[in-house]
């Protein structure tokens, strides 16, 4: 049995910002090389600021919890601030994660980063 912190369990049982976003400005789906699981991030961006974020996870409890915490951390941040977020920041905010579950938090942050890349690509096309 893996040991999760109370905060991890809370975010797993009551994920924040989970679900689809119909009017997202960017959407990105990423898969984990480590486990093959996938997740999607939706961003609503105004004046280079993340005004809303949602996620869908097809991963495990640790992925749902870290994705949930990640959305809380980056909501309201500028794109530049959000780019600096690392999976370690999220794991720290959750009070830790079993080491074999680190890749699940990587997946959460990688999907965010991919969504930000998509946003920047869409700006470059304008
Ligand atoms: Fe996929 Fe954990 S191995 S949910
Ligand atoms: Fe696949 Fe956690 S084991 S996301």
Automatic annotation (TrEMBL):
Q: Where are the transmembrane segments?
A: none
Xref: Pfam families: NifU_N (PF01592)
**Top-level taxonomic group:** Bacteria
Query: Taking every annotated instance into account, which residue ranges of this chain make up the domain NIF system FeS cluster assembly NifU N-terminal?
Result: 4-122
- CDD domains the record matches: IscU_like
Q: What processes does the entry annotate via GO biological process terms?
A: DNA biosynthetic process; iron-sulfur cluster assembly
Q: Which Gene Ontology molecular function entries are recorded, alphabetically?
A: iron ion binding; iron-sulfur cluster binding; nucleotide binding; ribonucleoside-diphosphate reductase activity, thioredoxin disulfide as acceptor
PANTHER family per record: IRON-SULFUR CLUSTER ASSEMBLY ENZYME NIFU HOMOLOG
| The protein, known as | Nitrogen-fixing NifU domain protein
State the organism named in the record. Answer: Pseudothermotoga thermarum DSM 5069
């Amino acid at each position: 049995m893996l040991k999760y912190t109370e905060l991890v369990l809370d975010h797993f049982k009551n994920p924040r910002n989970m679900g689809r976003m119909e009017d997202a400005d960017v959407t990105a789906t990423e898969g984990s090389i480590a486990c093959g699981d996938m997740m999607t991030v939706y961003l609503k961006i105004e004046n280079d600021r993340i005004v809303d974020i949602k996620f869908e996870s097809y991963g495990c409890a640790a992925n749902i919890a870290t994705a949930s915490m990640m959305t809380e951390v980056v909501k309201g941040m500028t794109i530049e601030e959000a780019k600096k977020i690392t999976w370690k920041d999220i794991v720290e905010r959750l009070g830790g994660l079993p080491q074999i579950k680190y890749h699940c938090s990587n997946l959460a942050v990688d999907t965010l980063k991919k969504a930000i890349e998509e946003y920047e690509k869409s700006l470059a096309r304008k």
